[in-house]
Amino acid sequence: MKNAGKLRFGLCCIFRREPIKFRQVTAKTLLSFSRVEQLLRLAEICLHNVNSLKKALSFVAENGIGAFRILSPLFPRLTHPQVGYQLDELPGVEIIRKGFEEIRRFRQDHDIRLSFHPDQFNVLSSNREQVIRNTNRELAYHGMLADLVDAEVVNIHAGGVYGNKESALERLKENIEKLSFPVRSRLTLENDDVSYSPKDLLPVCESLGIPMVYDVHHHRCLPDGLSEAEVTERVVSLWRSLGREPCFHISSPRNGWDSRAPKPHADYIDPADFPSCWTGLTATVDVEAKAKELAVIDLQKELGLHSNKSGE
DNA sequence: GCATGTCAAGTTGTG
DNA sequence: CACAACTTGACATGC
Q: Is Hydrolase a UniProt keyword of this protein (predicted)?
């Protein structure tokens, strides 16, 4: 068989069939309790989530999946202005920290790449000071989590354009330069499907020494004149120049490529959507598909990759 | 039990 | 102008 390179696939955040769940709580609910009660509930949920993360990594390792994206609200509402908290305020924090120790060791032993994808509220190109402040706080939270689990990547989009892409990118650069080390050293920028194409982001990334995560689905939604092969080559050499393994995203549109309106993700990946220029590379491909682990395992089979179990 | 509306946050494009 | 879409689901509430 081929697969000369070491292409590996990543699972994103949650499971469809596997009984591994992450719990949540809203600020509104927390606000109906006393502070002591809030922290008790939060501690319970955080411990539950750490245990779920352990199970998630075990599942991933057993199924030959090489990467896992951790959902942002692993510690729900930690950065919330009213109900936010510090890890050390949680009753039983020692047990939680112990769990993280196990996770770090397991990750290393099994060579699983961990990443975060802070959501759309994180906008470093914003012209509003409040938005930048909130983003910095949220990114700092992700940096702390990344230290705790030994994650390698904190991946965000470039944000809005505000009628002037050049000045927006200028603000983006300035704000990236101001990030603290735990965040800056892990930050990556991903092309999106409405504003920033690979052609826009590559010069920024190359000048800052920040890797670019290449989402080929977004590139197909927002073409920029560069071919998939050209982008792939530049992205790969950027990651390699930093001594790191490239990251890509793949997904298939639920309603086919013809439908003009929004393109929600399909349950599975159509193997025809997998860029041929990725075959044989050493890289990580996060699978963004609603069938989650089932889609990753399916795609691995379709592409002739085998899980650890099956030998090879 | 099960159905349904609600969740902190930003920006853009569509109807 | 309101709302969906974005990695989307889980939780709280009311029947």
A: yes
